[in-house]
């Protein structure tokens, strides 16, 4: 490693696995509603990872993984039609030891040690005010 390199180490923390619809994995011509409501297939289990970056300026977390409550708490996702869509979107498998907290602890850290969190993907939002 280069002494001038600001990154000292990168570690991967697994927070479980997810299966999604094949059309969600790669863009297709099918509209989202079609993918969610009509598809009968799931992908192979895909990893859900968070990356812990030991940086000279402090601990950086790239993504946060999936919350275990999403498989243990029946009220985690909304009810109604929105809940139906969520249930058709993804299937999670997250073991008790596959939490971000447990992964950080295995590396000798706590959540309080994280200085910066970078989220790689967020829902797209629109602004109430338009630029002038």
Structural features, described:
The chain has one domain: Ribonuclease Z/Hydroxyacylglutathione hydrolase-like (Metallo-beta-lactamase, Chain A). The protein has a five-stranded mixed sheet. The termini are far apart. The model has no long low-confidence stretch (mean pLDDT 88). Helices cover 24% and strands 29% of the residues. The chain is α+β, with helices and mostly antiparallel strands. The chain contains five helices and five strands; from the N terminus they run E-H-H-E-E-H-H-E-H-E.
Compressed to H and E, one letter per element, the order equals EHHEEHHEHE
Shape: elongated
CATH class, anyone? Answer: Alpha Beta
Mean pLDDT over the residues: 88
**Largest pleated sheet:** 5 strands, mixed
Total number of strands: 5
Radius of gyration from CA coordinates: 18 Å
Q: Topology of this protein?
A:
Layout: E1 7-20, H1 22-25, H2 32-38, E2 46-55, E3 58-62, H3 69-72, H4 80-89, E4 90-93, H5 100-106, E5 114-118
Can you describe this structure in just a few lines?
The protein has about 130 residues and is an alpha+beta fold. About 25% of the residues lie in helices and about 30% in strands.
């Amino acid at each position: 490693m280069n002494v001038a390199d600001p990154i000292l180490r990168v570690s991967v923390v697994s927070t479980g696995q997810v299966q999604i619809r094949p059309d969600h994995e790669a863009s297709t011509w099918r509209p989202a509603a079609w993918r969610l409501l009509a598809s009968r297939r799931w992908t192979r289990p895909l990893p859900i990872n968070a990356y812990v970056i030991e940086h000279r300026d402090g601990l950086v977390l790239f993504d946060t993984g999936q919350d275990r409550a999403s498989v243990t708490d029946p009220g985690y996702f909304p009810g109604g039609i929105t809940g139906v869509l969520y249930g058709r979107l993804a299937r999670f498998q997250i073991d008790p030891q596959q939490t971000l907290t447990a992964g950080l602890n295995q590396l000798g850290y706590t959540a309080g040690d994280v200085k910066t969190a970078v989220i790689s993907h967020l829902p797209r939002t629109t602004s109430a005010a338009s630029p002038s």
